[in-house]
Amino acid sequence: MHSKVIAACLAAALNSGVVLGHGGSHDKKTARKPTAAANGETPFGLPGDPKKATRTIKVGMNDKMHFTSGHVHARQGDTFKFVVTNQGKVMHEMVIGTMKELKEHAELMKKHPGMEHDEPYMAHVSPGKTETIAWQFTKAGEFYYACLIPGHLEAGMIDKITVEPKK
Question: 102: which DSSP letter?
């Protein structure tokens, strides 16, 4: 009976696209993109080339459950390099997405709090460390970035990205 429950849980996890986006590796080049089109595009953009970044945004994360960067403004087509530094003493992360996707992912994180992130729109940052995300905003709209460690989003660790349409 116990092995059947484990097998059912494993099958459910493998069939959920979000879980496939997490693995033991932080190698963003080999990251699976379950919500992405064949070219890597998501509803909120696609992986960018950090060498072609039009802007660098420094994002600090702290144990007061806040990002120091605030609301980010971009134009459709812009590529940003986010330099994400954990200034706290606990693990934090920055995940870019739509509000719907972030809330779904946060619920999944509650069920699997130890899962690691390897998607190009995520930075899972240990205390005192820095990671980077290079992201191209290919679509206009309101998007968000949040820390999805259980309890952090609920404590207010979220901010907005507004992408204005091309002119």
Answer: H
